[in-house]
Amino acid sequence: MKPSYLRLFESGRLERIAEELRTRLGRCDLCPHRCGADRGAGARGRCKTGLLPVVSSFHAHFGEERPLVGRFGSGTIFFTHCNLACVFCQNYDISHLGRGEEVSYDDLADMMILLQKRGCHNINFVSPTHMNYAIVRALLIAVPRGLCLPLVYNSGGYDAADVLSLMEGVYDIYMPDFKYMDADAAALFSDAPDYPSAAAAALREMHRQVGDLVFDAAGVALRGLLVRHLVLPNNAARTDLVVECIASLSRNTYINIMDQYRPEYRAGSFADLKRRITGAEFEQAVEWARRAGLYRIDGLWLPGK
Fold first, then answer.
1. Which residues make Cβ contacts (< 8 Å) with residue 27, sequence separation at least 6?
2. CA–CA separation, 268 vs 262, rounded Å?
């Protein structure tokens, strides 16, 4: 299956997408915060980022979901900063404290090519929402150099549906979080009270573009939607409603229900977040997903089954 961005490049559409994203950076509205910062002139947006990409690390990653990792790993590029302010972020040194280095578009393209040469199955952009212009600019350099791997959009789920629509065809695999279906929790823990509605709209657009997750003969993902949900203690995220919303897209949606919550960063200051989840809470989350009709649950289902 040929990655869709190659067709965009051949048609000239990828260049036009880059131009439109660059224009929008002048009054930045690339995420639902729509902070209006003139990032193109050097101002920092709410995401604390200007025009050039800032990268924390890049490498073959073997800790992602099985359909991304395959045999040779997911070629992961971790961007610094984030458009969310999650108090429990497990990568807070990157997202909040800004660990990383500003790089050129040429450097970013080289990272993609190097990961491809190392045999990675895909290029996995972590926290891409505020970096979409930089990614597309780098693709314009990387494609003539031979880049041909599927691209993964690995976001926090707080994405603007109209921006995703503009970029249709750039990404082959969407892998967003769906953190909350409770506006109060989203406001308190991530400073994004509209997260439930914004994330639901973003996921609908993602699914419209790429559909359900599909695999090659070895079970490696080629295209489609994969949704992550981190279970929080005391059902603070309203997991029961999250899985119902995901199932409303398609009961064939591939979902990773994650049990690795731990009280990192400032989580200890919040009563509902002071502890890890229990085994019973995780089992309840899986049961809610199954009741909603979801069955392609990471770790509990294999392609072809």
1. 36, 37, 38
2. 10
Residue 111: strand, helix, or coil: helix
Q: Which two tokens stand for residue 290?
A: 């199954």
Average pLDDT value for the chain: 96
In angstroms, the Cα distances linking 42 to 47, 109, 181 are 13, 22, 35
Which amino acid, one-letter code, is at 253? T
Task: Give the model confidence (pLDDT) of 75-128 as tens digits.
Answer: 999 999 999 999 999 999 999 999 999 999 999 999 999 999 999 999 999 999
Q: Which domains does the chain have, with CATH numbers?
A: 4-29+52-291 (3.20.20.70)
Taking CA atoms, 269 is separated from 265, 274, 278, in Å, by 9, 7, 19
Helix (H/G/I), strand (E/B), else coil: 62: coil
For residues 77 and 64, is the Cβ–Cβ distance under 8 A? no
pTM of the model: 0.96
According to the model, what pLDDT value does residue 305 have?
57
Helices (H), the chain: 4-11, 13-25, 66-69, 92-95, 105-117, 132-142, 161-166, 183-190, 195-210, 239-249, 279-291
What torsion do the CA atoms of 53, 58, 60, 63 make, to the nearest 10 degrees? -90
**Dihedrals phi, psi of 57, to nearest 5 degrees:** -165, 165
Residue with tokens 């770790």: 299
Cβ contact 130:49 at 8 Å: yes
**Helical packing angle, 239-249 and 195-210, nearest 10°:** 30
C-alpha–C-alpha distance, residues 156 and 189, integer Å: 13
Model confidence pLDDT, tens digit, residues 155-208? 999 999 999 999 999 999 999 999 999 999 999 999 999 999 999 999 999 999
Whether residue 49 is predicted with pLDDT greater than 60 in this model: the reply is yes
User: Is 80 exceeded by the pLDDT of residue 304?
Assistant: no
